[in-house]
Input
Amino acid sequence: MPGRLFLTKLARGLLTVWLIVTLTFVALNLSGDPIEALVGDQAPAEVIAHYREKFGLDRPLWQQYVSYVSGIAQGDFGLSLSDQRPAIELIAAALPRTLRLGLTAFVLGLLLGVGLGIVAALNRNRAIDRFVMSFAVLGFSLPNFFLGILLILLFSLHWRLLPSSGDQTIWHLILPAVTLGTHFAGTFARFTRSAMLEVLSKQYVVAARAKGVPRPRRVLWHALPNAAIPIITIIGLKLGDLVAGSIIVETVFAVPGVGRLLVNAVTSRDFALVQAILIMTSITMVLANLAVDAIYALIDPRMRAARSES
Output
């Protein structure tokens, strides 16, 4: 990736993070007084005043904003109102569970979705193609909470095969990973099928077939690499969406990860914790997009040519 292009995208990413920080700060401060949610609206006025002064909420809003942004620049995301611990410390404790669930679901969805997309493209307008596309539409449109509850009813309550909550063992990981991975698989299958269909009609693929190149080689060495760019695009977007996508799933299956931590923080109006999680999520999205752009520069000859000309 050319240096100027990289700096431009990095600047846009930093601007995006700053906008998210600002909008989140404003929205949370308009949602109500977090101290009342912490101590209760029946608490004495002096107790409320004490906590407001302790957390710096008695200052003008613009001073709170400047103090918060400057703290973020120094790596300080503030104290959790409900837990009285640094927000980043709470996130660090919950993050491994979210990464384990999210990455397992992502790999499962990637392998299943790309594989099914290729099979559907090679069998266009046949029964297997219609079956794969029906699965894809169902996978990305079915709400995670509905699919999760359905799997709990079947595999936990009815058949008693798998646990319905927690993350103590690998068996606890299966149902939430399948729930989240089904959404990823449906999305990847759709994009892979579309990209493969476009490439399979190109002249170089037709010429390879006319020369007698075996079908597996045509697919793996000729078609798939040239169909990779749109697939990588959606992979990058979904990879940056791991934390956001796990919120509902972690709540349904009672997994104590970042998603569930965010739900509890929003409920208790824990400003510092909510803002820290949203900033982390936005940074993940920005880094995923930068990674996708860097991969483009490696696999797309047109971008390499543009770099050499510049």
User: Anything to note?
Assistant: The chain has a mean pLDDT of 86. Residues 93-268 form a domain with the MetI-like fold fold (CATH 1.10.3720.10). Residues 237 and 288 are 7 Å apart (CA to CA).
